[in-house]
Design a protein that fits this description.
The chain has 643 residues and is an alpha/beta fold. The chain has 3 domains: 3-212, 3-Layer(aba) Sandwich (Rossmann fold); 220-376, TPP-binding domain (Rossmann fold), CATH 3.40.50; 386-599, Thiamin diphosphate (ThDP)-binding fold, Pyr/PP domains (Rossmann fold). It binds thiamine diphosphate and magnesium ion.
């Protein structure tokens, strides 16, 4: 057997440089080199091991310098998503805190089925330096390190204490990363000393490997079962989930819906699989959905979930259509089996294609309902787009501290409403621009209001809704699509949580655009708090008055444009719609990254359109509003699906 003597670090780099993936689409094989970039935050736990190999060994991988491990790994996960899982950016951190910083990102990737490969420095296998700097030292178990925290949030975890173990670990990593149904984060802990230890690896291990991403073919029995339910139904509604995007099934699902006249709604992960302007596209569904999708969902007699995991919030799955039959097409038997469905375990594209055999001349009984629901929503969109501040302005969200709006205007001078800002941004930026977001009130507004006719132009991380993904995710999206404008839609809360990869974007010469919606609040959480009758507390950025709770003071006015200017971003402050328009137009002419600090009125985000979800609340409410909230919850729970 031919062997080659390499250190563990060198073996990892050489192996990853030789991986390719391929998927069949429209009769052609699409092949992609799997690793073009490697992302690092070096520390003593990795700089001399894998770091040495990345620096010295021969390879074709571009190595990037991360700023914060969570941001780095979130950018990498976004890249995996936006390349439709055809590429990854492996990340490496040091031991201890560096590794711990990646746990959040690993969870986020796993929840969203995004491919993410993480390497973390670990304690010495030899135990000679015991404790090494940053070692946790558990008294009850000598084998536990910080890295054990990854076990709860990854689809595969391994710990390497001998250099030859990496061969099975990397084989398993590729299995998980290319698994269409259960793709997620892989974390491989590398003992600090072992990274530099060498081994006679079989040369065969490093040959070019092309990993075929299989399309799960459904079994005929399940196809017939699902087809029967569709044929019995007069008013079905399709939910397009992220699986439709990953399997490149947008065109197929669209043709299916056209042929049978079935309206389709979209989840956050499914948006931009099919064009927004399509006459059957009724838009976002669920708690963050719009009226057209939610009205039709209530009226439907069958829900057809394609590539959706039915998260309660985005699909309102346990209430909106609690009494309706659900059929599913999903590459994962786990997700397909939810909501007591009649399930078809299949790739979205193959599953939809297979149905045709049994649907004969099936057509739904819809007449004008779809167009009517869409027309109603279009009217509402026009209203939202024209919401403007005035003396007698009434905010969209009814529950607020008396001076929430006036106090904000006084402190910042900003008078822009969030809904009008979104409509203007949509009008001005290119249709193929990629919109990236994750948390706060923006995802709800955008699932309702954001439209695009360009594939893969929307990257909303709403499985984990992790604050901080917005900017990191924008950078990852830009690496995937260097020729398209990319916009991070972030609230002030998310911006403050994490924006460190702005510097990496600058360093890499990648233009991202940060749209910072500063309402000086954790706006959506303040809405939830006050909507349940709880007095505002620590959800608005107000100065503390004496020893009083953070509730009544003046609003803080932070000049984010100046902060970002210091990094080297081209920045703008927009307090009026005219200023926002001018800033957007100018930012499109720039080649450097940009940031617009948009001062948006608190409470000016969209309200609900007929969804409901169960949030834990006190069963001994102390206020009238709290009593109402509890009563409403109990009533809804009676109607809700129990499992
Ligand atoms: C990492 C993380 N921590 C906490 C939360 C809970 N959370 C959700 S939204 C939010 C506030 C968001 O504020 P901001 O970004 O300003 O958005 P707004 O609601 O004001 O639009 C918080 C704290 C979260 N989603 N992610
Ligand atoms: Mg905010």
């Amino acid at each position: 057997m031919d062997t080659i003597r390499l250190t563990l670090g060198e073996a990892i780099v050489r192996y990853l440089d030789n991986q390719y993936v391929t998927i069949e689409h429209n009769g052609e094989m699409i092949e992609s080199k799997y690793v073009d970039y490697f992302y690092t935050v070096f520390g003593h736990g990795c700089v001399l091991g894998v770091g040495e190999a990345l620096s010295q060994a021969e390879h074709s991988i571009k190595v990037m310098q991360g700023r914060n491990e969570q941001g780095m790994a979130q950018a990498a996960a976004a890249y995996g998503k936006m390349t439709n899982r055809m590429k990854i950016i492996p990340c490496i951190s040091s031991i201890g805190p560096g590794a711990a910083n990646m746990v959040t990102a690993a969870a986020m990737a796993t929840v969203n089925n995004m491919p993410l490969l993480l390497f973390m420095g670990d304690t010495f296998a030899s135990r000679q330096p015991d404790p090494v700097l940053q070692q946790i030292e558990q008294l009850h178990d000598g084998t536990v390190t910080t890295n054990d925290a990854f076990k709860a949030v990854t689809r595969y975890f391994d710990r390497i204490t001998r250099p030859e173990q990496i061969m099975t670990a990397l084989t398993n990593a590729m299995r998980v990363l290319t698994d269409p149904g259960h793709c997620g984060a892989v974390a491989i802990a590398l003992s600090q000393d072992v990274q530099g230890e060498s081994y006679d690896y079989p040369a065969e291990f490093f040959r070019k490997r092309v990993h075929f991403i299989p399309r799960q073919i459904p079994c005929d029995y399940e196809v017939r079962q699902v087809a029967e339910k569709i044929k019995e139904s007069k008013k079905p509604l399709v939910i397009v989930g992220g699986g439709v995007r990953y399997s490149l099934a947008g065109e197929t699902v669209k043709a299916f819906c056209e042929k049978h006249n079935i309206p389709f709604s979209e989840t956050q992960a499914g948006k931009s699989a099919i064009e927004s302007s399509h006459y059957l596209n009724v838009g976002g569904i669920g708690v963050t959905g719009n009226s057209s999708a939610n009205v039709l969902a209530k009226d439907a007699d069958l829900i057809i979930g394609i590539g959706s995991k039915f998260t309660d919030f985005t699909t309102s799955s346990k209430w909106l259509y609690a009494d309706k039959q659900v059929v599913t097409i999903n590459a994962s038997a786990f997700h397909a089996g939810k909501l007591d469905s009649i399930k078809m375990v299949a790739d979205a594209l193959e599953g939809v294609k297979a149905l045709e055999k049994y649907l004969d001349g099936y057509k739904t009984a819809y007449t004008t309902e779809i167009a009517d629901a869409k027309a109603d929503w279009d009217k509402e969109m026009d209203r939202l787009a024209s919401c403007a501040y005035s003396e007698d302005y009434v905010p969209e969200i009814p529950n607020h501290v008396d001076d929430s709006v006036s106090g904000f205007v006084k402190a910042t001078g900003g008078v822009i409403t969030q809904t009008a800002a979104l409509a203007l941004i949509r009008k001005l930026i290119p249709d193929n621009a990629i919109a990236v977001g994750a948390a706060g009130s923006l995802p709800g507004c955008m699932q309702r209001m954001w439209t695009t006719d360009t594939r893969d132009a929307y990257n909303m991380e709403y499985g984990y809704s992790c604050m901080g993904y917005e900017i990191a995710g924008a950078f990852g999206s830009k690496l995937a699509y260097p020729d398209r404008e990319v916009y991070a839609f972030t609230g002030d809360g998310s911006y403050n949580m994490l924006h460190s990869e702005m510097i990496t974007a600058l360093q890499e010469g990648k233009k991202i655009n940060v749209l910072l919606f500063d309402n000086a609040s954790f706006g959506c959480i303040n809405n939830l708090q006050m909507g349940q009758g709880i007095e505002a507390l620590c959800t608005e950025s107000r100065y503390r008055v004496g020893d009083e709770p953070i509730r009544n003071g003046e609003f803080m006015n932070i000049d984010y444009a100046t902060c970002a200017k210091g990094y080297g971003y081209v920045t703008y402050t927009a307090k009026t719609m005219d200023e926002l328009e001018a800033a957007l137009l100018d930012s499109m002419k720039q080649t450097k990254p940009t940031l617009i600090d948009i001062k948006v009125l608190p409470k000016s985000m969209t309200d609900g359109y007929g969804g409901w979800w169960n949030v834990g609340c006190s069963d001994i409410p102390r206020t009238e509003k709290g009593k109402e909230a509890l009563k409403e919850k109990q009533e809804h729970l009676l109607e809700a699906r129990k499992y």
